[in-house]
Amino acid sequence: MHRRFVALAGSERRAAPGARLVGPADPGEQLEVTLVLRPPPRGGAGSPQDLGGAPSIRLTRAEFARTESAQPQDVEHAEAFAAEFGLRVIRSSPVERTIVLAGAAGSFARAFRVHLAQYELAGATYRGREGSIHLPEALAQGVIAVLGLDDRPAAERR
Fold it and tell me: How many CB atoms lie within 10 A of CB 140?
């Protein structure tokens, strides 16, 4: 199936400063990657403002689920995308607006149109990527982040 893929806004990455490219990532390495879905549109029927209060209103769990959950079409697009690329949905939480996918690094690289590689930095290696993550246009409208494609260190111990 031919679809138009677009770069996910804000997903551009570069190698960590001082990192050295070692080689391609192991395409068989098993990964878990989290898709973070967009919040629902604001101000419509059922929004916190519609419930009779300011945006800081306290919501019951049921009200929160009804007003803050991912849009059903975003979840459907993400699950269909996963199936198309041989990725498994291991957790889907519309209330948290996250979907966790599992599969081989090579499948993720094909699905997101990225090149995963091994880098060395300060005596340690990490899996990383350069450039943007790409998604089918319909899915890109509903996804605000893709987490877990790389495992570079994000913080240092003091």
Answer: 19
Contact 87, 111 (CB under 8 A): yes
| Residue 65 resides in a domain | no
Domain with 132 in it: 5-40+70-147
Q: How many domains does the chain have?
A: 1
Contact 108, 32 (CB under 8 A): no
Helix/strand/coil for 137 = helix
Q: What is the reported pTM? A: 0.84
Token representation of residue 84: 């198309």
Q: pLDDT tens digit string along 7-50?
A: 999 999 998 899 999 999 999 999 999 999 999 887 555 555 55
**The token pair that represents 5 in the structure block:** 């893929």
**Helix or strand run (H / E) with residue 73:** helix 72-84
| 63 within some domain | no
| Residues whose CB falls within 8 Å of the CB of residue 117, separated by 6 or more in sequence, listed in order | 21, 22, 23, 24, 25, 127, 128, 129, 130
